[in-house]
Design a protein that fits this description.
Elements: E1 2-9, H1 26-36, E2 49-50, E3 59-68, H2 73-80, E4 87-95, E5 106-114, H3 120-127, E6 132-135, E7 149-152, E8 154-159, E9 163-170, H4 177-189, H5 195-203, E10 219-225, E11 231-232, H6 236-249
Parallel strand pairs: 3-10
Antiparallel strand pairs: 1-3, 1-4, 2-3, 4-11, 5-9, 5-10, 6-7, 8-9
Helix pairs in contact: 3-4
């Protein structure tokens, strides 16, 4: 059978997502964890796939992987669902044999932008520019063959005493897209860039500009959604909240 797992991780404690020789990576650690508990012997033979390969330093609360196995999902969760570790597996669902987690219905990313002396109104009004369909060539690292025209469904901003908590919703994102948009917002809020400059960069992507990259550590892949739900462990919401708080505490 093919099984999908939902999992969280603290990206600060790894050297990136994808497997690398002699490096502690999220994918490498996850596969070793599954091997240790007899879930799979060979990731390639099991067609191991992931929804999102996050940048080095980026964390997740709702990434998804899928693989072929003969071990029941309940047995896997009972063995590996420990939120005190750097990788926390908390949900499972049996899926179709051809399921590929990268083809998600929607993704949600969250960025904790430190408020400091940023202009609240400037940040809020500029963020609104990014919603809808745009050519994001000036706000992403566009890989060959990738369409730079993407659509952001919504951007929702809350705040606490320390951070703007910015949630981005879209089916898919380009490489570095959120970190580049955040960098632009940060510069506008600090008075180093104008809202009109951001608007121009969106409206005229052929005129290349570089607003640079925001730090990866405050970025969290909050959720990846499909047309089905996951069976999750007891007290999942509370345990995920505690996991997120530990990530934020290190910012």
């Amino acid at each position: 059978m093919r099984l999908a797992l939902k999992f969280a991780y603290n990206g600060k404690h790894f050297s990136g997502y994808a497997r690398q020789p002699h490096q502690r990576t999220i994918e490498g650690e996850l596969i070793q964890l599954l091997k240790k508990h007899g879930v799979t012997d060979d990731a390639k033979a099991a067609c191991f796939r992931t929804a999102s390969r996050t940048d080095c330093g980026v964390s997740a609360l709702g990434n998804v992987c899928a693989f072929d196995t003969s071990v029941a999902g309940d047995a896997i969760l009972s063995e590996v669902s420990d939120e005190r570790s750097d990788i926390f597996i908390y949900g499972k669902q049996q899926v179709d044999s051809g399921f590929y987690p990268r083809y998600a219905k929607q993704r949600q990313y969250r960025y904790y932008l430190r408020k400091d002396t940023l202009d609240v109104d400037a940040v809020l009004s500029t963020a609104a520019l990014f919603t809808g369909e745009h050519d994001f060539r000036n706000f992403a690292r566009v890989e060959p063959g990738k369409n730079p025209v993407q659509s952001i469904d919504a951007i929702i901003i809350a705040e606490d005493e320390t951070f703007f908590i910015i949630d981005f919703y879209a089916q898919t994102f380009l490489w570095n897209q959120i970190r580049r948009m955040i960098s632009a917002l940060q510069k506008v809020g600090a008075g180093k860039l104008t809202k009109n400059q951001v608007h121009t960069a969106l409206a005229h992507p052929e005129n290349r500009v570089d607003f640079q990259l925001a730090a990866p550590e405050p970025l969290i892949l909050k959720d990846v959604q499909y047309d089905f739900s996951f069976d999750v462990i007891q007290n999942c919401t509370k345990r995920l909240s505690a996991f997120e708080k530990r990530i934020i505490a290190s910012l």
